[in-house]
Amino acid sequence: MTNEARPILMLPAWLCLALAGGVGGWLHNFSAAGVAITIWTLTVIVLFACWKISSVRAWTMTIDLKWLIGLHLSRFVGFYFLTLASRGELPSGFARPAGLGDIVVAALALVLITVPLLRGMRMLVLAWNAIGLLDILFVVSSALRFCLRDLDSMLPLRVLPLSLLPTFLVPLIIVSHVLIFVRMRKR
């Protein structure tokens, strides 16, 4: 296996592990702190890999920025948050701000990847990235706050399909924001 292929193969392997964890109900009985520790541990591991593993570092520093921005289209999951809140399956105090913030970030990401990145758009990408990072940090802290108050109120985030958020997608989203800032700084 070539060094270039390793990072690409790591993502599906991680996704399969996260799916297995979801099927196995690994997060179902986690405490709020356990879920938070999972998110931040995975984020640190991925950041460490991006920094210390040469093939991963080379891949993350050369992948087209549109792919890193495109990952944020997954944040249209905000619509599902709103649907769950309307059914009473997620607290509205969490789902509305988290869902709307994610939808806005995803919509702006869609604009950024469909419009050619011109020189003048650098500031727009940086502004979007800052807003997106602040939003995901708000979502994580808000989820933790609601879990600490009533763990069962946030059960949909601890079972499939949404268990993929803390075990796969949220760490990747946070890391992608960091990588975009690093890549934009180097330009």
Descriptive overview:
There is one protein chain. With 187 residues, this protein is mainly alpha-helical. The protein has one domain. The chain has helices at residues 5-24, 32-52, 54-62, 65-70, 78-86, 92-114, 122-149, 164-186. The longest helix has 28 residues, at 122-149. The two termini are 31 Å apart. The mean pLDDT is 92.
Structural class: mainly alpha
Shape summary: globular
Poorly predicted sequence stretches spanning 5 or more consecutive residues:
none
Helix-strand sequence: HHHHHHHH
Overall radius of gyration: 17 Å
Profile the largest sheet: none
Give the integer mean of the pLDDT values: 92
Helix content: over 70%
- For the termini, the CA-CA separation is 31 Å
Q: Estimate the strand proportion.
A: under 5%
The beta-strand count equals 0
Quickly list its features.
74% helix; 187 residues
Summarize the structure.
The protein has 187 residues and is mainly α. It is built from eight helices and no strands.
